[in-house]
Amino acid sequence: MTEKIKFVQGNEACVEGALYAGVDFFAGYPITPSTEIAEVLSKRLPEKGGKFIQMEDEIASMCAIIGASLTGHKVMTATSGPGFSLKQEALGYACMAEIPCVIVNVQRGGPSTGNPTHVSQGDINQARWGTHGDHSIIALTASNHQDVFAMTVDAFNLAETYRTPVVLLFDEAVGHMREKLIVPEAGEIARVDRLRTSLGKGVDYHPYLPREDGRLPMSDFGGDHRYNVTGLFHDMWGFPSNNPKVVSGLLHHLNDKIENNVHNITRYKEHFMDDAEYILISYGSSARSAIHIATNRRARGEKMGVLELQSLWPFPEAMIREKCANAKAVLVVEMNMGQVMRHVKAAVDRPENVFLVNRIDGKLITPTDIKSLLRVIQGRGV
Amino acid sequence: MSVKEYIRERYFPHMWCPGCGHGTILNSLLHAVDQLQLDKKDLVMTSGIGCSARISGYVDFHSLHTIHGRALAFATGVKLSKPELKLIVPMGDGDALAIGGNHFIHAARRNIDITAIVMNNRIYGMTGGQFSPLSGAGKKATTAPYSTIDSAFDVVKLATAAGASFVARSTAYHVLETIDILKKAINHKGFSVVEILSQCPTHYGRKNKEGNASQMLKFQKDTTAKIGSKALEKNPLLIPRGIFVDNDVPEYCQAYDEVIERAMKGRKA
Amino acid sequence: MARLKLKEHVINRDWCKGCGICVDFCPKQVLELDSKEKVIAARPEDCICCKLCELRCPDLAIEVLTDRDDKND
């Protein structure tokens, strides 16, 4: 099917993934380098009867998608650095009220206005801890357009499965680069749709009482069940409560439903990882340079591999520890001051063998950047 | 149906202080909804944070108690995604016009079919009595021990200038007028703003020596007058009550339906 | 129009917070606060069924039950 092959920007690949996953409501605010997502959806959504709204600010966009999710829609917003900061309070609300939604952050240099048109991966920890209070979050990422598409579909699926916001952490290089995308046929990738309660009218429905499998069936606003949604700690009806048992029970639930499912949520790719002695851990556009190096070194017989992370939160600690058990050295390749590197050090048995290859100047990490550090580690001079 | 049919009785008595005007506003709203014979299934109440915001827990509607100042942004998402629902958004004065001021003017500009109620008690009650953007100058508050120097917004003028297609004002004292206005606001197709002067005897009344709840209500009676009344003509310093704007302007969700139609046609062509 | 005739004042003592608004604004001084600061209908015979107490009550604690008095039609 030739019309399914496209030559697009990463931001457009994200749109294709969202449409494939069934997005039907988007609220956003213009910001570089994520704006194309809003632009393309403003055209594509009404074509299929969906809704697009450009809100007055980033905060309002986040709030609007939460409202639309409650009426039973699949929702998304997209932003970058400063906009992601502004969305944090409402993102915490979505965690607390357990409302499925997808937030795309096409990362640019920060802090503050920073380096709007240049690449960075500086928001990894913000995605984890940007909103206040203990909570858990799911964050996915991708290094190429086919994976941007797949991870976007996955983000919608995970949001529905765990009734939680999911963050897509792309970066400016992936977002703006153009490459081939093959849009799969409908049904080729599984879609998780909203789990709705089967309880009929007049039956006491508990919107916040998990089933045995941990999932919480929802009821659309406008449906038979009227319940309360709040950002306060709440009981199984959604009514505010400061009963210590209710408070600790809910906080445990919000964390456990994600942290106890790390193995189900973890997504990664292995490149030449069999018998690898030198392991490059990377993600997003940085992973492309890491894969380039490993490909060349393997051709020369060197045992080098790349562990490409596609889910960053919950952090895939156990998987990384296992994959790096026999490594002579682990190089974390990322465009920040070592945000993932610190977690890798905490995960592995020999943290002294973990090194950082980074760039923080708005330029992509090049194969040469990685080679320079490899020379030192491998004792081949500076 | 009686008004009790529209509340969640198990959460009463409510948490508001004795004599709080917000309770009376809830009462008026319930009467308006009851008189209109609205189906609870179609009603969504969205609120922000503060004393006012707790109202959403007490009504047996679909209720969304959100974050400070953003109730209208959440409501916009609910309404646009499911336009057949009726959205009622009560807000406090700080909630609506300080932290939520941007959302307030933009919801008005879009003319999206939402009924916004500003429960104006001129103070932040939940946090203990700080001045709000509607306190006005020369008032005492816990953050204005030497009295305020900030001017107040005129909610009616602000909403009108921002494009709200229905704008009205009443008070907690004038319950019959409030019920009548709320019925018209809810039925109005477009963004309606109803400012209802409310009393906070606990903080505002005490700080500004305005007496108990009844004395504060009497003050609402004495300092306001209906639009077009002789009293207002004689004393233009009185605060006018009534319906200031009631325009038939294209509503946002309906306009978006036309966008969908154009987009779908373009695709077929 | 049929005039309304009082059946009774139904007062929810658990909800009444004794703010006194209904007492102060009753046009016929029908209501009083008792020693526990809860409203009671002290002079129900004077009630004209205007229901302003019911409408102004911030606590939804008072309801004026009425019959239609068809004899006055």
From TrEMBL, chain A:
SUPFAM superfamilies linked to this entry: Thiamin diphosphate-binding fold (THDP-binding) (SSF52518), TK C-terminal domain-like (SSF52922)
Stored InterPro entries: 2-oxoacid_oxidoreductase, PFOR_II, Pyrv_Fd/Flavodoxin_OxRdtase_N, THDP-binding, Transketo_C/PFOR_II
Keyword Oxidoreductase: yes
Stretches assigned to the Pyruvate flavodoxin/ferredoxin oxidoreductase pyrimidine binding domain: 16-193
Keyword Oxidoreductase set for record: yes
Residues that span the membrane, as ranges: none
PANTHER family: SUBUNIT OF PYRUVATE:FLAVODOXIN OXIDOREDUCTASE (PTHR43088:SF1), SUBUNIT OF PYRUVATE:FLAVODOXIN OXIDOREDUCTASE-RELATED (PTHR43088)
Protein name (database record): 2-oxoglutarate ferredoxin oxidoreductase, alpha subunit
Native organism: Desulfocicer vacuolatum DSM 3385
Phylogenetic lineage: Bacteria, Pseudomonadati, Thermodesulfobacteriota, Desulfobacteria, Desulfobacterales
From TrEMBL, chain B:
Domain named Thiamine pyrophosphate enzyme TPP-binding: residues: 49-196
Source organism, top-level taxon: Bacteria
Single GO biological process annotation from the record: small molecule metabolic process
A Pfam family reported for this protein in Swiss-Prot or TrEMBL: TPP_enzyme_C
Gene3D superfamilies: 3.40.50.970
Keywords: Oxidoreductase
Gene Ontology terms for molecular function: oxidoreductase activity, acting on the aldehyde or oxo group of donors, iron-sulfur protein as acceptor; thiamine pyrophosphate binding
Protein name: 2-oxoglutarate ferredoxin oxidoreductase, beta subunit
Lineage: Bacteria, Pseudomonadati, Thermodesulfobacteriota, Desulfobacteria, Desulfobacterales
TrEMBL record, chain C:
Any one Gene Ontology molecular-function term assigned to this protein's record: iron-sulfur cluster binding
Keywords: Iron, Iron-sulfur, Metal-binding
Alphabetized InterPro entries for the sequence: 4Fe4S_Fe-S-bd, 4Fe4S_Fe_S_CS
Residues in 4Fe-4S ferredoxin-type domain copies: 7-36, 38-67
Protein name: 2-oxoglutarate ferredoxin oxidoreductase subunit delta
Originating species: Desulfocicer vacuolatum DSM 3385
UniProt lineage: Bacteria, Pseudomonadati, Thermodesulfobacteriota, Desulfobacteria, Desulfobacterales
